[in-house]
Design brief:
Two copies of one chain form a homodimer. By secondary structure, chain A is of the alpha/beta class. Chain A contains ten helices and 13 strands. Chain A has one domain: UDP-N-acetylmuramoyl-L-alanine:D-glutamate ligase. The longest helix of chain A is centred in the C-terminal third of the chain and has 18 residues.
């Protein structure tokens, strides 16, 4: 079993109503690979950093069974940087700064050992890069999952639509699903997005949970109501990591198993938001994860 | 088994992005009693209308087993009127007009046959009137449920806090729960509201479902994702009607049975929003309701 995860490895400045953290380790691929590492080994990272990225963090990721041979380290360059401020409700945020740095000219190169994964997770990035990674594979993975955002709908819609034709699962938030489909009802939006390619659609609704659609079938996982949310950064990527990690582990791509994967994803997202950055994803245990999945079952079972 | 339902019986002008309806029959008590009438008979209404209220509608309510002997009809006066316009997301609305009319001097008078109900549903009204109804009962009901809104927190907070001490279940929306408790996290807000009296708290989140809290226990029912939402007016009251109707029918006030009641409430809310006003609540059948409850189970079971 193996998972290839593509996306940013970065620094973030994060401001929430409850605190502020500067230059914390972040990036979609960091959250995805850390969350997935609790389910599958190896998680094979495709990304790029500058030589300012802390070696201790890379060593920690490797200790967690994360393969960094597809991580490019650009000497004399700086890592991708993002700064954002969350609104009081923590469900929306403003981007204060984005410095592409190494990402500006990123060309992913897959090591030979990466070219036949069970599951491929294409984290939010330029759609053309997502396509490039797909094109480098030797064989089609059991499942290809793609995350994207409104920015690419505004600026690279044709490229996005092209890559959507080749994937199995699209993860997207509710407003983005509406933008991509032009439909307000998420049920109707999902029907319309199916026609663009993906046979599964996961619509993420932040603190309101996530919906899974599969040609007329529907599943809903709430977000776990928490006494304290410290920092929502990375929740969606931790979700993607738990989701794809569980699927790479079980290699069962049926609707019923994708439901369970959504719950494991939601569980990893709920751990993520309980601390700043990746802190809370560093030392989980299988029994902590199982207990949290059980609390999702308790929350909705009647 | 019996349910007493207190609240407005009214006319509404409703504007949504999808249409407009004038002077349709509405009011909290109308939705509550109609939704509850699928579970329990009699539903005993405590309310007031003017002589402009259509007799045919009153006759229809009576045919559905709704007891109107506690409904005052004021000759020469006009019924309560509300006009509102929904925003594009249908999750928020502006009030365009409110005419209290008969409600300005409403003094509820409970007929003798109303004074020992199994369940009492105090729909959203002046907190003092809610207290007055409680004071007229001969014996404490098995369960007292109260709905309220931010307006009473702004204008009659002491009266509201007084009546909260005497009830079992508070239904309230998420923003109102935050306002009442001064806490942002709904988990913490519920803890704080428990201390005000209610042992159960239902926090309604519109299209994002409803949470049930009971001293540290939590249950979540999503709203059913629908292909088409026509008019959200009355969804919360239909929820309250299904919730209290199911509880009056089963007379089991345990946490486990309140979970089921929340799902029946959510089912009735989902029927309500599929048409303007009360239209879709007029001719449901038990098998339609059971099928919808089953689709809630399918939606969340994993």
């Amino acid at each position: 079993m193996s998972l290839v995860a593509v996306g940013t490895v970065a620094f973030d400045d994060i401001e929430t109503p409850f605190g502020r953290a500067e230059k914390v380790v972040g990036g979609a691929c960091t959250y995805i690979s850390l969350a997935a590492s609790y389910f599958v080994k190896p998680v094979q990272v495709v990304s790029v950093v500058g030589d300012d990225f802390p070696e201790a963090v890379l060593a920690f990721l490797q200790e967690r069974g994360i393969d960094l041979s597809g991580l490019q380290i650009k000497l004399g360059e700086k890592s991708f940087f993002w700064a954002g401020r969350y609104h009081r409700d923590l469900n929306s945020r403003d981007t204060l700064d984005t410095q592409l740095n190494v990402l500006a000219n990123f060309e992913p190169v897959l090591p030979e050992s990466y070219k036949a994964p069970d599951v491929l997770m294409l984290g939010n990035l330029v759609p053309k890069i997502q396509s490039d990674v797909l094109a480098q594979l030797k064989q089609r993975p059991g499942l290809v999952v793609l995350d994207t955002m409104n920015f690419w709908m505004d600026h690279a819609l044709d490229d996005l639509k092209a890559v959507l034709k080749s994937i199995d699962v699209l993860t997207i938030n509710d407003e983005e699903a509406r933008q991509l489909s032009g439909k307000h009802s998420l049920v109707v939006a999902a029907q319309s997005i199916h026609e663009m390619g993906p046979k599964y659609i996961v619509i993420k609704k932040g603190e309101h949970g996530a919906l899974l659609f599969h040609h007329g079938q529907m599943f809903y996982a709430p977000a776990l109501p928490l006494a304290e949310v410290i920092d929502p950064t990375g929740a969606g990527d931790s979700f993607a990591g738990g989701f794809t990690g569980y699927l790479a582990k079980t290699k069962d791509y049926s609707f019923d198993n994708l439901k369970r994967a959504v719950v494991y994803g939601a569980a990893m997202g709920s751990f993520c938001v309980e601390a700043f950055g990746i802190e809370n994803l560093k030392q989980l245990t299988p029994s902590m994860i199982e207990a949290r999945v059980q609390s999702f079952a308790n929350l909705v079972h009647f």
